[in-house]
Amino acid sequence: MKRILAFILLLALTLSGCKGSSEPSEESSAAFNGDSRVVCLYGSYAEAWLLAGGELVGVTEDAVKERDLDVGEAQVIGTVKEPNAEAIIALEPDLIIFSEDIAAQVDMVDVFTDAGIAVSGYRVDTFGDYSEMMEEFCGITGHEELLSEYVEKPREQIESARDKYGFKEEGPRVLLIRAFSSGIKAKTDDELAGAIMKDLGCNNIADDHPSMLEDLSLEEVISSDPDYIFVTTMGDEDAALSYLQGVIEENPAWEGLAAIKAGRFHVLPKDLFHYKPNHRWGESYEYLGKLLKE
Fold first, then answer.
1. Does 189 reside within a domain?
2. Mean pLDDT in runs of 10 for the chain (294 residues)?
3. Which of 29, 115, 240, 256 has the most crowded Cβ, counting Cβ within 10 A?
4. The domain containing residue 246 runs over which residues?
5. What is the pTM of this model?
6. pLDDT of residue 15
7. Residue 31 has what pLDDT?
């Protein structure tokens, strides 16, 4: 997990007695607590902040429409790709939490710091990343006791899933497809599901065929003939799967793949494999592990 925490110079001078730094000090971290005015620009991180005992004054649309979070009276301040900077600043937040994976959010960092607002950015691809983020969140809110339920419990579930479903020797050959309404791509361990597959001992065929990451060729898939094929979707799931189905229908050889003939083609649920599963990370491992033992 990579993190950026930026403070205005005045805050840094006041709290730490030195000139600005990109790394938070104990004094600057202590400036925030569960009552701080916090805006979150990504639904998954908004959920994590709430799990850590925090409250929110502003969230992006996905937190409500896709994650169905109870955000109280928090104001919706745009979408993840188009947050409304003016609306965010008008809320007078103490801290803005954003995603380092979303370029539009990263580009807004200077706007917020110039306005005197602290910002903290995260990239969460693995349970370890999530664990580190939750430790920071619970440290800020003062609710470290919540780590037992929302970090240690899923950690134990993951360890159990590794023991039960992990491959001790060479694992199966898998293909992970990211489908959206206008295209498909292969993904590796830079994708949540891919990271779990790798942790369980699978061999992702895209690691041996990097060209799949930019332009997924069914000819390469057919040549590699994976044991399992998994699909995650972005955006409108029906539109994404319709596009994928159209590509498949253009190539009858798809039906001859070992994974297809064995019924090992699986569309993974969004709540566990597209959105960050947060405290349900153990469920993601368990779900995928069961499929890999079919």
1. yes
2. 46 35 38 80 97 97 94 96 97 96 95 95 94 96 97 98 93 93 88 94 90 81 93 90 86 89 94 94 97 88
3. 240
4. 161-292
5. 0.85
6. 37
7. 60
Domain count of the chain? 2
Do 282 and 154 contact (CB within 8 A), yes or no? yes
